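in:
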């Protein structure tokens, strides 16, 4: 039995009250690992944006991506 077949069999055993959580998890898992046509450098346009209070975000995208690579 494949993992896909096992997952389908298990889903049939889950109560309707818990299906919300399963669907939310599956939606997250179904997101492609790489977004076609997107590059981390595209985030540079977001640096310096202000929040609703008019305060500027100090932590830039470049620093965020560097931290994520560590």
């Amino acid at each position: 039995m494949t993992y896909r077949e096992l997952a389908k069999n298990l889903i049939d055993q889950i109560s309707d009250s818990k299906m919300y959580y399963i669907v939310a998890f599956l939606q997250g898992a179904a997101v492609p690992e790489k977004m076609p046509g997107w590059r981390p450098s595209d985030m540079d346009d977001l640096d310096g944006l202000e929040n609703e209070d008019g305060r500027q975000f100090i932590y830039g995208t470049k620093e965020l991506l560097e931290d994520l690579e560590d």
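note: The first helix runs from residue 3 to 11.
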